[in-house]
Structures are given as structure tokens and as C-alpha cells.
Amino acid sequence: MGERRSRLASRFKKAVEKAEDARQDRERSAAEAEQLAQAARDELFGELQALAKDIGFLTVQRTKQGLTLRYGERYLHFAPDGIGDLTAEMEGTGDDVHRLYREAELGNRWVYLRKRRFRELRVPLFDQGIEELLVLALGLPRPEEGDREPDDSEGSSGGPGRRL
After folding, report:
1. Residue 138's closest CA among 65, 89, 101?
2. Other C-beta atoms within 10 Å of 114: how many?
3. N or C: which end of the chain has fewer CB within 10 A?
4. How many CB atoms lie within 10 A of CB 87?
């Protein structure tokens, strides 16, 4: 009887150790994913600050609550939402939902999502999404299509902006 009990105890011990190892691996993976998401968000905030500086007419305020771009009396606020996503907040858009998230299937590129009642618009944040947000939220004039510079990542084909 003691031998059967010992084998059963050994099997349970191995099963519990295996489950504990798996739990620790999941916790490590989740912590690593959260760190990567935070780093990506910080990098995006840096890019948005640089863009605002390059435009020259915008003021930028970065706090623990996010990043705010201002033009005149209008604002565009990017606030952390969950582990790695952002919400874009602005006046005058009613019940529309504006989110930024990284799309794993697109190599973790940032995507702008705008939900309007039963419709959704999903475009890459750079250049289409940020252009849409700056025009919508801050009232900046929309740049002419001919004013676009070719994106280095797409070569210098001079084609249209990136689309999903």
C-alpha cells in the first residue's frame, strides 16, 4: 500500500510542479508583454511630440495621464487604455470612439480605429490616422495630396499612402 501511495504522491507532485512552472511562465510572459507595450507607447508619445514640434503650431503637454496636443482652443488627448492601447479624446465627436492599438498581424504597427455607430474606420496611424485625427480634433487644414512626401519604408514610388 505504501508503494502505491508513494507513486501516486510522486505523480501529483510532478503535475503540481508542471502547473506551477506553466503559471510562472505565463506571468513572466505577461510582464514582458506589458513592458514591451509600455515601451511602444512611450516611443509613440515621443514620435507625436516630435511631429508636433515639426509642425510648429502645436503645443504639447505630456503627463502621467497621457499626451495632449493643442492648437488654439482645441485639443487632442491620448490616454493610456489597458496594457498597450490608447484612447484619443477630443471635443465635438459625440459618441464616436477613437482608439490606437498595435496590430500584431501588421508587425505591431499602430492602427487608428474610429467607431461611429455601426461603422468602423481602421487605418495605419502613420500617416492616414494621425492626419485624420489632427484635422478632426484640432481643426488643422488637410494637407494637399500632392504635398505628401514618399515614405522611406515604401521606397520612393510616390504612390498613395499606406492602406490596410
Report:
1. 89
2. 19
3. N
4. 16
Q: Which residue has 478632426 as its cell numbers? A: 136
Give the residue carrying C-alpha cell 493643442: 70
Q: Which amino acid is at 110?
A: W
Q: Are 98 and 133 in contact (CB under 8 A)?
A: yes
Rg of the chain over Cα atoms, rounded to whole angstroms, equals 23
Do residues 99 and 77 lie in contact, with contact meaning Cβ atoms separated by under 8 Å?
Answer: no
Each residue of 35-57: b (16+ CB within 10 Å) or e?
eebeeebeebbeebbeebeeeee
Do the beta carbons of residue 146 and residue 160 sit within 8 Å?
Answer: no
Instruction: Find the DSSP H helices in the chain.
Output: 2-55, 130-138
Neighbours of 125 (CB within 10 A): 25
- For residues 63-81, average pLDDT: 92
8 Å CB contact between 114 and 98: yes
What per-residue confidence (pLDDT) applies to 151? 53
Would you say 114 and 100 are in contact if contact means Cβ atoms under 8 Å apart?
no
Cell of 76: 487632442
- Between 91-95, 104-108, 139-143, 144-148, the lowest mean confidence (pLDDT) is in 144-148
pTM over 0.85: no
